[in-house]
Amino acid sequence: MGFPADGVLLTKWSSKPADHKIVRVRNNQRRHRERVKSRIADLESRLAETQLELQRALSTIERLTAEPGHAACHRSTIAPGDADRNTPLLGCASSTTTTETWSVDEESCCDLNPPGPEESTTRCRDAYKIIAEQNYAGLDAFTLREWLQPGFRGASAKDDGCRVENGLLFSLLDHISSS
């Protein structure tokens, strides 16, 4: 089976040890198991981080829904399918604000927290006038109210009516005027 070459007998098979293939396969399997374990550990750590983030988000949601006056106020004035033209646009404005298309009454205004000292707000009745002029998209009152609802604040002075956060107002104006 061998061929003589300068007096040395060579086999026609590999010069590697007989157990080389077994060792190579075993090492490949070991490396594969290590990669799988590493991947599992990575996925488990990402899962733990995501679960922690979810818990924080749920506690924030719970805290925000438990705030008095904020969630209960708007839930009582907005019902599904209530998106007709007579729906109050900004349910926290004073009773003196009326228009031909949307009515805003004082009954839908709740005891909201006043704006913070660093918070920039606009009176709801002024915001309504600006929105009515810029509503090129033709969004209905329900949609507009849903957009602004998180930004509603109580009056900063007596008989001032409610206020709306400027950041939300400007983002709404940008949306309706560019649509």
What would you say this structure looks like, in words?
With 179 residues, the chain is mostly helical. The chain has two domains: 1-66; 80-178, no CATH class. 49% of the residues lie in helices and 8% in strands. The chain is built from five helices and five strands. The strands form two sheets. A three-stranded antiparallel β-sheet has the order 3-5-4. A hairpin with a 2-residue loop joins strand 1 (3-5) and strand 2. Helix 3 (124-134) packs parallel to helix 5 (166-178). The termini are far apart. Mean pLDDT is 74; it is low at 70-108. Residues 26-67 form a coiled coil. InterPro entries: bZIP_sf (IPR046347).
* Sequence of strands across the biggest β-sheet: 3-5-4
- Secondary structure category: mainly alpha
Count of the domains: 2
Report the mean per-residue pLDDT as an integer: 74
Total number of β-strand segments?
Answer: 5
Beta strand %: 5-15%
Shape: elongated
Uncertain parts: 70-108
Distance between the termini: 85 Å
Which SSEs are present, and which pair or pack?
Elements: E1 3-5, E2 8-10, H1 20-66, H2 70-77, E3 121-123, H3 124-134, H4 141-148, E4 152-153, E5 163-165, H5 166-178
Antiparallel strand pairs: 1-2, 3-5, 4-5
Helix pairs in contact: 3-5
